[in-house]
Each structure stands twice: as structure tokens, then as C-alpha cells.
Amino acid sequence: MAPQIDPPQTVEWHGKQVPVWSMRTVDYGLLLSQDPAEVDNVLKACLEDGYFYLDLNNIDGRRMLGDQQETLKLMHRFFEAPIEAKNEYGLISSHLGYEPVGNRTGAFGAGTKDGYEMLKVSRDEIQRGSPKVPSPIKNNGDLGLLENSIGSCNTITKVILSALSTGMNLTGASRFENSHRNDRPSTTTLSMMHYLPSNDLADGKKAGHQKHTDISSLTLLFSEQWGLQIRPPGTCGAREMGFVAPKPGCAFVHVGDSLRFASGMKMQSCIHRVVPFDPTEHRYSIAYFLRAEDDTMFVDSEGRYVTAGQWHDEKFKAFTDPWQWQAMAPKSMILGGMVEDGDDDGKNEQPKLVPSPKEAKAELARAEVSVQA
Ligand SMILES: O=C(O)CCC(=O)C(=O)O
Ligand SMILES: [Fe+2]
């Protein structure tokens, strides 16, 4: 059920009033015509905020909203299947396959685990026509639907890229679209996520999705449910965590590291996480990660000249590392070099689920054994 939003925009969560951040809305139909005011609007959103709502409730966008509803039905069917069927091939590559709950760090940071399972389908694989997908999808003729969804998301994100190139006066080969060509290998993927009710997750230490910025150039995110939080950039560093209210007919779009780097650090990479808003609820989200061609070069947040493929592989490893190793990676890796101002909740509070030193040591020993295995 939609929660009550009180003016000024806040919502009650964990016994506190938490901000609900407002943001620009960009009209997809106007972007398609390169409407000068809308090009300016989307450019400002990416330069100043790093995110915006994309209004798809028009003749050009509604088919994607339809694909989203069909994809949601597919997700319900898939995630209800037995774990053996879902995990038939496991995670085949970083951008293709199934990942069970608890594989990564969770919403409350060090010592916690994530609370979602995920199925990813790579754009390159679906273009080749025979992606390796588990039998609950293959046996139900769902591949056509996934191709439609991926195709729609691909078009939408490229329309946005094109408007951004125009807004930044980029021409010819330097336009952003030219480093996101369909026929060149990339880790672009559609990711379907199911967050389990945190009340059901046995030890209480599994919840949500850790704070991060995305590897991608642009992320097109659909969820009808609460739980996504962002830290808007401020003049001294990102402000406190607040919710993104789901908006009917709209997707939430945000800039990831690759576009921030490709723009010479002018655009903001969006710091975000997912928390259990309602601990009794199953939450479903669909994210399309448009990523640059693997061999695109840019200067990363550590000042290194790297390829998009290398940035992806290093950051993906950091995401999936045990938190003790994650803590040793450069801070700029998980947050793409974005600077924070103070704590997530605006004051000096310890995360609630930090393990004792004894628990941490035992967990590190377990992680070392499983990596060697
Ligand atoms: O589930 C969501 O709403 C966001 C997921 C996310 O941040 C990600 O997969 O990178
Ligand atoms: Fe993300």
C-alpha cells in the first residue's frame, strides 16, 4: 500500500521521518523529438542531480510500460520455481544467469548480506538468439518477451544518451551513442530482482541491496514498490539518504560511473541502496543497465586510464567480494568517486547490524575457505 507522504516531503521509516527526494521529470516523447527545452532539462538532471523520472505515459513509452507488466508476470512465475530449477546454470557470467539471496553485502553495510535473488539476461546473448536461460523461462516461451523488454529499454536509454550528446555539443564519433553500439561487445544487461520479505530471512542479517553507484552508463529502473533510497549530491558531498517515491507511468533513470567518467566527471553518479520499506512485502524491480562497449576508454575515479570492461570487472568483483575485502578496495570503487557528506541518515549513528569482532573474524575465515574451494 502507498505510504502517507507528509509535507515537507518525508515518510516514516524505522520510527523516523525520512526525506522523500523530489526530482525533475523528463518527457520521453519530447526527448524523441530533441525538443530543445527537454534536452536542456535532461542534461541539467544528469549534471546537477544524476537522476530523474522519465515519463513514459505517452504513445512512444506506453509499450515499454506494457513490456514491464509482462516481465513482472514472468518474474513472479520464475521466482516461485524451485531453487534447483532457477539455479540450473548459476551465474554464467557477470551479466547472465541467476544469483541467489545472500551473495553480496546488504543494505546495512559491513557484516550484513543482501536480501534479493536476481536473474540477469545479457543484451548481447539475446541478440545472438539463444541465451542460456534456466528451464522455467525456456519452457514457457518467455524469450520473445525478454527480447521485447530488452529492445524497448535499449531504445529508451539510447534516446537519452543521444539527447545528452546533443546537450553537450558532442558531434560525430565523440557522441555517447557511438561508444554504445549494439554490435560491439558490452556487459549491457536486464536484471530482474526479487527482494524477499526481510521478516522471512532467517537470521535477520539479510536485507536489501548495499549502498553503491552503478557501473553502467545509464540505469533504467522500474519498480512499483517503495524501498529505493538515494543520496542526492550536495555542494560539500552527497546529502542524507531519502526515498524515491514510485511514480505511476514513470521509470527512474540514473547516471552510473561510466557516463560520469565519459563526461569528464561533469555528470553525477547516483549513490543509492534498497532497504526493506515494508518487512512483510515481496519487492520486485527491473533494471536495465546500459553499459559502454568493453573497449571504450576513460579516466576512472582513481585517475587511471581504463577500459569500460576493466572498470566493470574490477567493480563487479568488489560488489561480490566478502565485505572484509570490499573494505580494502579503494573507496572510490563502490561509490564511483562520489563524495559523501556525513552519515547516510544525517547523523553519527552506527549501522544497526554490524557484527561483533568475533563474528567478523569467523566470517572472514569462512570466506577464505569458500574462495579457496
Ligand atoms: O532494486 C532496485 O530498485 C535497485 C537495484 C540496484 O541498485 C542495482 O541492481 O544496481
Ligand atoms: Fe544499483
Automatic annotation (TrEMBL):
Fe2OG dioxygenase domain span: 185-292
Alphabetical keyword list: Iron, Metal-binding, Oxidoreductase
Gene Ontology MF terms: metal ion binding; oxidoreductase activity
Biological processes per GO annotation: small molecule biosynthetic process
Ranges in coiled-coil conformation: none
The keyword Transcription regulation belongs to this UniProt entry's keyword annotation: no
Keyword Oxidoreductase: yes
Superkingdom assignment: Eukaryota
Region listing for Disordered, in residue ranges: 338-373
PANTHER family: 2-OXOGLUTARATE (2OG) AND FE(II)-DEPENDENT OXYGENASE SUPERFAMILY PROTEIN-RELATED
Family stated for the protein in its record: Belongs to the iron/ascorbate-dependent oxidoreductase family.
Listed name of the protein: 2OG-Fe(II) oxygenase-like protein
Phylogenetic placement of the source organism: Eukaryota, Fungi, Dikarya, Ascomycota, Pezizomycotina
